[in-house]
Specification:
four-stranded antiparallel β-sheet; 12 helices; 305 residues; three-stranded antiparallel β-sheet; alpha+beta; elongated; 61% helix
Length: 305
């Protein structure tokens, strides 16, 4: 494309409807008003912030790891009701638990890096997050234990000592299956001599077996609290980003409820002559707005004393 054509490319707001099933896929485009490069850049920055703190955040990856562990245990429990679980079933439990420990460390490291890059290490946002994690380390056994359990698994292998299934009969005569993933404080202490001093005290006090499922649940709650505090420390910027995305989307109205708002980049002279070629499209990320609304609502609920 020549420089002259390139200089004539403009951004417009519009909408698209993808009609499916169809072969080839049929698009219906509507082109609305022109928007500036600054408007497009503002949208990208706003959507980037929301992705960073929500949909593509380190906490989102931690959630995925937590639910993967829960799912692996649930599948094994379902299998155990009919037959003995396979080696692969047990391997999946151990693997997903190790993945959860890795995701925990990444939640801290990558969130801290994102905050320091965006706001600086002297910012209130960065300090608030680190303080939130420090509080969880101080008050939550699961958080401080799992934070250092990652080091254990790196040096000693899987930290899970047993995966146990048992059957019983309830007082009403109904068969009951119990499935649990077991950690053993004595084994952990005997196999590793580099525990954090407080974690060592915790394990000495436990002095026996305890449930990895209960630990994972407490860990999820602890990280969730820190994540909510992180969101609230950035609430003003998050809200402003939502307003910018909404403002851009509102600049094009369509009667088709199936239409998705988009940016369209095309040659202004050809568009004036009723042509739309060549062109590029980019989504206006209004789907993030509902995600943000729900996340901030939950964050305020979690933060309430």
């Amino acid at each position: 494309m020549s420089n002259e054509s390139g200089n004539d490319l403009k951004w417009y707001v519009g909408s698209v409807v993808v009609e499916a099933p169809a072969s080839p896929v049929h698009w219906t485009l509507e082109v609305g008003e022109e928007v500036s490069e600054a408007d497009y850049a503002s949208h990208r920055a706003s959507a980037g912030l929301l992705d960073e703190v929500l949909t593509n955040s380190a906490f989102a990856r931690f959630q995925e790891a937590y639910f993967a562990f829960k799912e692996a245990v649930a599948k094994a429990s379902e299998v155990s009701a009919d037959k003995r679980p396979t080696v692969e079933t047990y391997t999946a439990i151990r693997r997903t638990f190790d993945d959860l420990l890795t995701a925990l460390r990444r939640f801290d490291d990558r969130t801290s890096h994102a905050l320091s890059s965006r706001y600086g290490k002297d910012s209130a946002e960065f300090k608030n997050f680190k303080q939130a994690l420090s509080l969880e380390f101080k008050t939550s056994f699961a958080y401080r234990f799992c934070y250092h359990l990652r080091n254990y698994s790196d040096h000693r292998g899987s930290s899970i000592s047993n995966i146990r299934q048992s059957s019983s009969i309830t007082p009403g005569g109904t068969p009951s299956q119990e499935f649990n993933v077991i950690l053993d404080a004595r084994t952990l202490l005997n196999n590793y001599d580099k525990w954090h001093s407080q974690v060592r005290k915790d394990l000495i006090q436990i002095d026996g077996e305890f449930s990895a499922l209960s630990v994972a649940e407490e860990l999820y709650q602890a990280c969730g609290r820190a994540h909510c505090k992180n969101l609230l420390s950035q609430e003003a910027g998050i809200t402003e980003a939502c307003a910018k995305i909404r403002s851009i989307a509102d600049r094009h109205r369509t009667q088709n409820e199936n239409a998705s708002p988009i940016f369209i980049r095309t040659n202004a002279r050809d568009l004036a002559n009723g042509k739309l070629e060549p062109f590029n499209v980019s989504p206006i990320r209004i789907e993030l707005l509902d995600v943000v609304t729900a996340a901030l609502r939950e964050a305020h609920q979690v933060a309430q004393p």
